[in-house]
Design brief:
Layout (H helix, E strand, L loop, with lengths): L6 H22 L6 H14 L3 E5 L2 H11 L7 E5 L4 H9 L3 E5 L10 H6 L5 E4 L11 H11 L2 E5 L7 E2 L2 E2 L6 E5 L13 E5 L5 H8 L3 E3 L2 E2 L10 H11 L2 H19 L13 E2 L5 E4 L3 H10 L25 H9 E4 L7 H19 L1
Parallel strand pairs: 2-3, 2-4, 4-5, 5-8
Antiparallel strand pairs: 1-9, 6-7, 6-12, 8-9, 10-11, 13-14
Helix pairs in contact: 1-8, 2-8, 3-4, 3-7, 9-12, 10-12
The structure holds pyridoxal-5'-phosphate.
Length: 365
């Protein structure tokens, strides 16, 4: 049986270190903001190459904290792709601001940079490009648009921790970046978790205050914040996982390349990695006309798949924007994510590819 994401196989490889690190937390007993949290923040900042990292309760909070830190609120607009996970735009709306959607590129599924520029108004405050499926959007082009219009760029790097663009790590490519440690993300813990990164030293203490009830020092609150912390046990788990993370990224990339080889020549669009990018393959997502019947036949062959995402954000009932985003809508009907994790065997990939080939051939007779 092939898993969509195999956390058990990964756990087997790091069990001794995991057990030791969790046992340390149980013995010192500092479950909230224990020493592992600060250790992890230092390691994460060094890993991506930025000066400041704040861990928090989940990736959604990370985005909300970032938006609160730059003062986004009612009357403001934030530009974000119409093809992403709901949380990206939800955090904008939660703060009373308006998410303004930009369409995406039909090949990479990443935000269409020209469409971002077309949607800027005098109310625009920020741009949230999403590093979807594991690779970064064109951050230098987006940063230069933002500079021209005095906007802040917040990378939604929930799916791209560990990816690079022109040799620099995701989470280091814009003023603020946010990631998620949800269990199935490339770097995941065993519960919820997230982090915010910035090289802006004046913003860093504000981010931290916001995540701690606006507290400047104990019981002294200088602003309205939220309560968003990463549990010490989750930090301990992430420290154990971080030690093997680079190896996992290599394994995921090998799996993706093997998929590419096996699936080339079929009536499918394979994932396109933009020049200058490396992907951490949060998803290996193909596009095909008969997506639903392919998914159904793979399911019958015991192969799990997922659709990321079946409904674009502008079509979600909660937003219901009366506009057409052609590329996002086509992608929502055509994308299908195949199993992807560091423990996929070459024989698994060959078997999945065979099932895909058989299904596509049947559709053509
Ligand atoms: C997972 C994800 C989030 C939210 O992260 P959580 O930790 O689940 O809150 C935000 N944006 C994108 C693109 C995601 O994939």
């Amino acid at each position: 049986m092939i898993a969509f994401v195999d956390l058990a196989a990964q756990q087997e490889r790091i069990r001794a270190d995991l057990n030791r690190r969790i046992a340390d937390v149980l013995s010192h007993g500092r479950y909230i903001l224990g020493p592992e949290v600060a250790e992890l923040e230092e390691r994460l900042a060094a890993y991506v190459g930025v000066r400041n990292c704040l861990t928090c309760a989940n990736g959604t909070d990370a985005l909300q904290i970032a938006l609160m830190a730059i003062g986004v609120g009612p009357g403001d607009e934030v530009i974000t792709p119409s093809f992403s996970y709901f949380a990206t735009a939800e955090t904008v709306a939660v703060l009373g601001a308006k998410p303004v959607f930009a369409d995406v590129d039909p090949e990479t599924c990443l935000v269409n940079v020209k469409d971002i520029e077309a949607r800027i108004t005098e109310r625009t405050r920020a741009i949230i490009p999403v590093s979807l499926y594991g690779q970064c959007a064109d951050m230098s082009a987006i940063n230069s648009i933002a500079e021209r219009h005095r906007l802040t760029v917040i990378e939604d790097a929930a799916q791209s921790f560990g990816a690079t663009q022109n040799g620099q790590k995701s989470c280091s490519l814009s003023r603020i970046a946010c990631t998620s440690f949800f269990p199935s993300k490339p770097l995941g813990c065993y519960g919820d978790g997230g982090a915010v990164f910035t090289n802006d030293d004046s913003l860093a203490p504000i981010l931290r205050q916001i995540a701690r009830h606006g507290q400047e020092r104990r019981y002294h609150h200088v602003r309205i914040g939220i309560n968003s912390r990463l549990d010490t046990i989750q930090a301990a788990i992430l420290l154990a996982k971080l030690d093997v993370f680079d190896d996992e990224v290599v394994r995921r990339d090998k799996a993706a390349r093997l998929y590419d080889e096996h699936l080339s020549g079929l009536d499918l669009q394979l994932p396109a990695v933009h020049p200058g990018n490396t992907s951490v393959w949060a998803q290996y997502t193909v596009q095909c006309d008969n997506r639903n019947s392919l998914a159904e036949q793979l399911k019958r062959a015991g192969i799990p798949t997922t659709v990321h995402y079946p409904l674009p954000l502008h079509r979600q009932p909660a937003f219901a924007v009366d506009a057409v985003y052609l590329d996002s809508e086509r992608l929502a009907n055509q994308v299908l994510s195949l199993p992807m994790h560091a423990d996929l065997e070459p024989s698994d990939i060959a078997m999945i590819a065979d099932a895909v080939r058989t299904s596509l051939q049947q559709q053509h007779v």
